[in-house]
Please model this.
Amino acid sequence: MRKPILAGNWKMNKTVAEAIALVSEMKDDLVSIHSVDKVLCPAFMAVPEVARLVNGTDLGVGAQDLHWEESGAYTGEVSPLMVKEFCSYVIIGHSERRELFGETDESVNRKISAALAHGLTPIVCVGETLELREQGRTESWIAGQVEAALQGITAAQVASMIIAYEPIWAIGTGLAATAEEAQRVCRDVVRATVAKLYGPPTADVLRIQYGGSVKPSNTAELMAQPDIDGALVGGASLEAYDFVEIVRLSAQAVSSA
Ligand code: PGA
Model:
């Protein structure tokens, strides 16, 4: 039985003051919801303050990226040692980083290795563009991204991490994949690729999130899918009411499963 995990990716939103206000608004409600893991991923500036606010609760904190080196002349970068002072999770390979900031399969792989070596849980994002989808290349693209991301990663490490399937055409568009489509890719491509590489026992424990326009109105349907073990939530995680609802509905889906 895989415990669902809901993560809010705040992206480049919320000043420290705004982050404090948002956490204060939703913290008690989130803490009162059990049976799912809950993670907040603020921008780096707000990470220490958010970590301080949720300290002692079961709320997790994640970074949105990291560099693979521990220290050095890498202006603007944040190392795994710095991330792990405050975070237990780290998002790696988000499509915005891949599309806008030159992230490659190779850098994604290096970051995953570094995160794991430092005891961080990577949330690794994969997803196809609308063009690839229209060309019928979704399956091969996603399988290729998963395979490239996991080069040199052991089965035990894979079992501990999270893969987020985020179709790029669904991110920030309001147009989520249907629950059936998301389930199909999570099962037949993401989990199947991990099963091919590491065997079914590893694939069976891997948690797979769906991401892309997740909101309260589509949460129950997505979370009812057997191979969707949570969500990576962007826009809706910036609103306390929406994120709490998404977490609450996900917990409800577990209890009715
Ligand atoms: P969205 O973003 O929920 O705003 O579509 C999801 C993501 O980018 O992780």
Q: What stands out?
A: The chain has twelve helices and eight strands. Strands lie at 5-9, 37-41, 59-63, 89-92, 121-126, 162-165, 207-211, 230-233. Residues 191 and 203 are 6 Å apart (CA to CA). The longest strand covers residues 121-126.
